[in-house]
Amino acid sequence: MDIELAKQEFTSFANLYLSKEDKKSSDYKNSLRKYNHSFRVMNLSEKIAQSLELPKEEIELMKLCGLLHDIGRFEQGMKYHIFEDQKSIDHGDLGAEILKKDNLINKFAMTNQQDIIKVVKYHNKYIIPKTLPTKTRFYIDIIRDADKIDILYSLSTEELIYENDNKTISDEIFKQIKKKELVNKINIQSSIDWVVVDLAFVFDLKFKKSFEIMKEKNYHNKIINIYSKKIKKKDDLKKLEEIRILINNYIEEMLTC
After folding, report:
1. pTM exceeds cut of 0.70
2. pLDDT tens sequence across 33-62
3. What residue spans define the domains of the chain?
4. Which of 116, 98, 114 has the alpha carbon at shortest distance from 13?
5. CATH assignment of 1-148?
6. Residue 176: Cβ within 10 Å count
7. Which site among 38, 129, 165, 180 is 20 to 30 Å from 105 CA-CA?
8. What is the DSSP string of 19-72?
């Protein structure tokens, strides 16, 4: 498995889409954001895998899975002009199909192909099937952690922005996050709901290294600070502060386990 060659192939694949888009368009900017996100997830996947003291070949496999996890986003963006799966197509399923079509996977790896395809397919699912092999679920967990951390990074730097629609945090969304669990996107009703759903990613992280990164980088507090300035409803501000306390306490708890 040659990760440097895989990076070149991934760039060539992404450029097939980027080259067709107007560089001033939102589609181009969103696709470029996903391209950069893929490389950051690759690097985060490596850090988590190294912290688990995995063999070198598995660390390289995790880097490749991190790089490819969102390969379906480019086709999704080109065809639907949106990155919301609920309004277009499941990008994990699409990515898996793209890798299988015409044996594209062969350009990236000749071994562990089924693991790679399954990681791409299931990395974004609300619930991971228990029927998957234990090792495959373990790989998926690593990529999911890396993916979630980088989405929070994107929000904290305002690379990813949810425009204020002046709606409130939905009761069902707030009820779910108070349970300290991953929040189901089907209940989203507003832009601030999207922020809360992303913040809830912290409660689905699996590895100590992930919590160490969150504490060090402070992404969640930066996000809450940003959106506390954007919203005007006092009830929402109160909810965000409650969420801040929940997350900070949870991170400390997971670091002392």
Report:
1. yes
2. 999 999 999 999 999 999 999 999 999 999
3. 1-148, 161-257
4. 98
5. 1.10.3210.10
6. 19
7. 129
8. TTS-TTSHHHHHHHHHHHHHHHHHHHHHHHHHHTT--HHHHHHHHHHHHHTTTH
